[in-house]
## 1
Amino acid sequence: MLAVFLKEFNGFLNSLIAYIVIGVFLTSLGLLMWVFPDSSILEYGYSDMSTLFNLGPYVFMFLIPAITMKFFAEEKRTGTAELLFTKPITYFQVILGKYFAGLALVILAILPTLLSFYSVYVLGNPVGNLDIPGTAGSYLGLILVGAAFVAIGVFASAITENQVVSFVIAVFLSFLFFSGFDSLSTIDVWGNMALYLNHLGMLSHYSSLSRGLIDLADVIYFISVATVMLLFTKLILDARKW
């Protein structure tokens, strides 16, 4: 697994994709937080980072599939899949190696946002006038959302050899899991089931973490989503006998 992780992670760092993804993520959120008047912290005058945490998952929704779409699709297209799976390594070790490489890149993209946290902390009146527990919970939530999106992207890449199709499937599933169930639950046809439908999605769990309420049930939810998607990926690989 470690060899696969290092191969994929070094592959990211030796190509433009990692720098493009991180650059787009940081630039877009930086503009939204500090420049665009409708969402700028400097305009509305409150020392919080809600712009980052409200919009971050939606940016991830497109950027993470761009990272993961080549994981298995590229291996199959180039014919290296057969070579990879002839090594003394299991399918699940390959899956986990690729998964953790993608997750490491996501965390690497999030780390520079700590500069924004420091800036908001210093600019507060008085200095430090910032909801630290809520911010910590939001960072944890953003990492967990990213972890779930990477697992969804790995699954989408295993389904098809076409990277564009993999990207589209991953974006759709990420949207469905993050806010799709929440939107569906507002339709007035579910009755008492609406609350359960809402809790199937990530948004309610992410919102809870963003308030600084680090409930183990919310953490387990995200880990469960990632685990289920990775298990489905293994089933796909087993069925296709790569």
## 2
Amino acid sequence: MLLTAVRMRILPWLRVHRLRLLVLFVGVLIPLSLFGVLALDVISQRDFFFDRPILFFMRSHTSPLLDAVMLFFSLVGARFGVLPVDMLVLIMLLRRRRWGDVLFWGLAVGGAALLNLTAKQAFARIRPELWLSIAPETTYSFPSGHAMASTALATALLVLLWPTSWRWIVLGIGAVFVVLVGLSRVYLGVHYPSDVLAGWAASTAWVLGVSIVLYGRAAKARINEEPAST
């Protein structure tokens, strides 16, 4: 009886929804699990085996040119780049009266920022103090706000533009930008690599989770699609 029910009901349902389940697993569950593992170790005050070696490797390869490049990506990775673009996209959506997309955008990028602030206070991880940084920070370290903000921007844009040919451009440029922003924070010695990984994971899971709740999938199927709740 049980095997019959599996064959007749569950297997056909899995075949129909296999792509959505794969996206849910890869885009939400895996990043969320990664963040959970990192968070548990931070709570336990354990050292990640890769944090200090990567930081010292970065330190050993500094140069005036790299200093300038990494300072640039660190600056545009938050209030001097990501935040203005976040606001510009919001204004464009408001002017086009895309109220459902406005709701998604606000929850995606605004929620990621709020999640980061809450997590920093909850985990209260002290920033690396291995050398004097050329761009010192005084707030808590885990997870990286720059990593979360840049990832939220790139992922949310990808969700909205997925039905268009722009998705591949956004995917390519967004991926490079997110990596460089995260790399800059480690290079400058103001974040552990685990902070950046946690930021990427948390932000990806959050934005795709919001999309699944509002649109019923990880990305819009049609450019004019509205969330089911609006």
## 3
Amino acid sequence: MQIRIVMLAALAATFGLWAADARAQAGPPQVTVAKPLASRVAQWDEFIGRFEATERVEVRPRVSGYIDQVHFRDGSIVNQGDLLFTIDRRPFRLAVDSAQSDVVRAKAQVVLDQADYERAAQLVKTAATPVRELDQRKANLDIARAREMAAEAALHTAELNLEWSEVRAPIAGRVSDRRVDPGNLVAGGQSGATLLTTIVSLDPIYFVFDGSEADYIRYARLSVGGQRGSSRDTPNPVRVQLADEPDWPHQGVMDFVDNEISAHSGTIRGRAIFENKDGFLTPGTFGRLRLYGGPLDALLIPDAAVVSDQAHKVVLTVGEDNKVVGRPVTLGGMARGLRVVASGLSPTDRVVVGGLANPFVRPGATVEAREGAVHPSGSQFAADQ
């Protein structure tokens, strides 16, 4: 066993010497270098959030009774005013009839008391009736008129309850499933009313996200400096990408920023609004949002020129002595088909843009550099604003 290990070690050493000798004979690896492209681009900041309905209503009955009919299909689209549920209307019709009879009775009493008052007024002029009798009849007339008003109010209430026995959609949108089937007793009123279903609006639709305090301060300074309007007053453009989308196809604008930064999370809530005429975007869906963050003087390099070094992003550069130097960089988004380098590079650095597949091209190695150039490969939305 020991003899075998020694032989393997000898073979490995021999192979290493052979590889080094072959590399020395072939000369230093060839790479293509180019200076970063300096350009003013639009800065886009990314946030995670979810879509929310602009309107959401819990449908509850205003009157109590037994559900007679359900007039919608679970999960369907409804328009404002569409009939959703019918509560047994017979008790409410009887209440309307009773209230109408009370109004008729009250009106008749007003007519009678009006006649009595007018007769008493004539008799008082001839001193045939004391003034006290006239005052009493005037009071009776006023009481009759008040009862007429109360009867009419009771009639309006009964008619309103009859109208409320038909539960209609208060907004347009997509309705959830029914929570109560026909034949069940539901409670109405201002508190403790039974939940029948819910409706959420679809078009337009909100996208809600949280931004950091640092982002908010940067945006505020840009607004004060006139470089970018505040999203409280300016419909700054946004794009959203869903989980299965390679690009950012959904376009919207900012329409709200909260009035304070949360003391618990150190974030501030923002909201964008999107058209959703086809109803594709659903409330509750998560997405990634890109918000226009103002102009940025940036350096652009091909995305393929960026390599990973454990937890860092690194760009390989070639110095005057033709040695490779790794530079940790902070990256931004894509602009004009190139990767934005926020920090870590200077405009005079010679970035390795070709030949990275060669395993011998690594920091500290000597290479043969050929000059190239960085060219924009497209006009993506992250480019000029």
## 4
Amino acid sequence: MAHEAWGLWGDADEVGAANLITATEVLKATVLVKQGRVLSLAQPLSKKTPVPGHRGGLQHFMDRDGGDYAGGAKAKGGFQFAEDTVVMPVHIGTHIDALCHAWCDDELYNGFASTEINSTHGAKKCGIEKLPPIVTRGVLLDVAKGRGGPLADGESIGAVELASLAAASGTTLQKGDAILIRTGWLENQAGKLPRNVDFNNEPGIDVEAALWLATSGVALVGADNFAIEAMPFPEATIFPVHQRLIRDYGISLLEGVVLAELAASGVTEFLFVAAALPLVGGTGSPITPMAIF
């Protein structure tokens, strides 16, 4: 298997395609702000946020609340406060994958050994803390609109369709872009929450589409589904898009993005802003991406 981005930014690089976002890309993206609107593209997080069966859900504990004072806790000078603790997987709701999240043949992005990740210290290489804040041009490719409604589970999206959607909106993909793909999958889950979401069946891009995006020089690929790619996977493969984009091209994946309101706005180009939690050695992070236009 080819390793197209390995060594492109040096043998020690752990940032990957985010290197494509320079000051030039940031400045070009800022001119897209015309209306002063800011949209959050993140799912709300709570105990009801669905996760696949192999992950634990979110747990939320109040450490101090009004009941403590009602029960006799002292309030010096009348000052009172509340505090809470949250325990959750980093791959929950709207989240971003670090470059250490997926690999094959015992090698991570840029040829780092998979043994650099263990349960004691997390990821010594390509952890989520290595990903810089993302400020660049965002591009919405609204496949659901192009097909006249949300895609059915398992439907695949190819390179020709993505290219046609971009052309129809007058958009040419540029170096450092953040590409967001709307399939309608997340919107279809509204009536299934919180327990009946099927994480094993979804529409998404195929490997051909992933390679078209990667060779166009994009820095980030996101979608409104669970895994970016179509599931079930093609025969004799497992997460082929993850392998190619994360491992071979160093492109982080942004999953579970809320795109309905952005799609309704009619805007296809916007200033995209997002920053992962700098969890040292983390394989990903919950995130609040924003579209500003």
